[in-house]
Design a protein that fits this description.
Largest sheet: 2 strands, antiparallel
Shape: flat
Strand content: under 5%
Length: 260
């Protein structure tokens, strides 16, 4: 926003520069919970999980998750592609079928109607679940669908995540993505400071004068973490929480293995 000189008027004009959102920003992978209901999902995960890439367990898991990302991303693209058209087409076919039932009702049309309703519910659930997870809004159970509500929230969140303009420490306005990125990195480098050659240690004598834990408490703290504890921690996380840096949310790790 800039103010021009008033010239011969007693009012100064104000200039607003509206920047359109950049469409070339790379969107990171994000696992959608609804994709776990896909008929091919467990089979895809099993094929990737049977591979071995390293003798180190954690590295092996990390590589498997890395190789699984593009496969799930492609599955998500194929399923969600033209989803609005699929819902509209399913709705139109259902209306035509129901009109035919009123005109000439028979068993075949009733079976077809049931199949079309299931198909419409399937694609509506996929759309609504994905939009809900993207917007991270609580589900509103007042009407059958809130896709417009979720879509507006997604647009708002997308705008908030973008940094269109930034003022540097030198009071210089930056608008190029590369300049903004460099300024942010340099800012935190200065904030964190340089590496220290020596670090002061805690005085054990002073620490022992304060509150201490019992021997039984020490044993509990040193005990190995059980699978049940991990499962309970994952289960306590809300479904609307953001995924980790790898794009997988906690629901992915709670899915049952093949055959269970």
């Amino acid at each position: 926003m800039e103010y021009n000189v008033p010239f011969i008027s007693d009012h100064a004009s104000m200039l607003l520069t509206l920047a359109s959102s950049r469409s070339n920003i790379k969107v990171p992978f994000k696992f959608f919970n609804v994709r776990a209901n896909h008929e091919e999902f467990l089979k895809i995960v099993e094929e990737i999980w049977q591979q071995s890439h390293s003798t180190v367990k954690m590295k092996n898991i990390w590589v498997k998750l890395k190789y699984l990302r593009p496969v799930l991303k492609r599955l998500n693209h194929e399923e969600c592609k033209f989803i609005n058209q699929k819902i509209e087409k399913a709705g139109q076919e259902l209306v035509i079928t129901q009109e035919n039932i009123h005109m000439k009702g028979n068993t075949k049309l009733l079976v077809k109607e049931r199949e079309l309703i299931q198909n419409l519910e399937k694609w509506s659930m996929v759309e609504e679940s994905a939009l809900q997870q993207k917007s991270k809004a609580n589900w509103i159970k007042l009407r059958d669908s809130n896709t417009k509500f979720f879509s507006s929230l997604i647009k708002e969140r997308t705008q908030r995540k973008q940094i269109i303009e930034l003022t540097s420490l030198n009071n210089k306005k930056l608008s190029e993505p590369k300049e903004i990125k460099e300024e942010i990195v340099n800012f935190y480098k200065v904030l964190m400071g340089s590496a220290s050659h020596t670090l002061p240690v805690v005085n054990k004598i002073t620490m022992r004068k304060g509150p201490t834990i019992l021997h039984q408490q020490r044993i509990r703290l040193c005990a190995e973490v059980t699978e049940q504890e991990i499962y309970e921690c994952l289960s306590s996380i809300g479904n609307d929480k953001s995924p980790g840096v790898d794009g997988y949310c906690h629901n992915f790790f709670l899915l049952p293995p093949e055959g269970e």
